Amino acid sequence: MAVRLTWYNRSMKVNLGCGEDKRDEYVNIDIRREVNPDICIDIRCLTFPDESVDEVIAYDIIEHFPIKEAKHILGNIYEWLKPGGVLKIRVPDLKMIAERMVRSPEDETFITLIYGGQDYFSNFHQCGFTEPILEKTLREIGFIVLGFNYPNFNIEVGAVK
Fold first, then answer.
1. Which pTM was predicted?
2. Of 53, 94, 103, 107, which is the most exposed, with the fewest CB atoms less than 10 Å away?
3. Quick one: which H or E segment has residue 102?
């Protein structure tokens, strides 16, 4: 069942998979009721009118879906965004993690970065990205990739519709 949401504000900003990172001025969405999101829903069931959203933050969420679903979700985000709308995405950087694992194979931190924390029902990683794979995926959908940052074994990307 899809849930269609409409806001009548001038600016619509969405924080998908917000977890504890709830942001003012954003509609904070998460599947876990215990983090008190503005909307509690599985993002696969979420929809907004086409070209109705100004900005989407998708930090630490896309990797929690199989790759086909992840691409479908990114495609949905593209459709929701207004022309010139911004996507900010963060995913684990598999290349950086693999390089560090080779140098420090005893460090279990990297296992968590690959497979997720596994401390609640949806905290499992089901797909992964390197910079070239993520960039190709976003460009194929239609995004213009603005640039990359690499905090804490992650890839952060800014992209525009």
1. 0.89
2. 103
3. helix 94-103
The closest of 49, 51, 53 to 16, measured between CA atoms, is 53
The number of folded domains in the chain is: 1
Q: How far is CA 57 from CA 11, 52, 81, 86, 151, in A?
A: 14, 15, 12, 8, 16
Can you give the CATH number for the domain in which 47 is found? 3.40.50.150
For every residue of 68-96, DSSP letters joined together read HHHHHHHHHHHHHEEEEEEEEEEEEBHHH
SS3 156: strand
Residue 96 tokens read as 């950086």
Q: Give the span between the Cα atoms of 20 and 7, in whole angstroms.
A: 23
Report pLDDT digits (tens) over 81-122: 999 999 999 999 999 999 999 999 898 888 888 888 888 888
How long, in residues, is the chain? Answer: 161
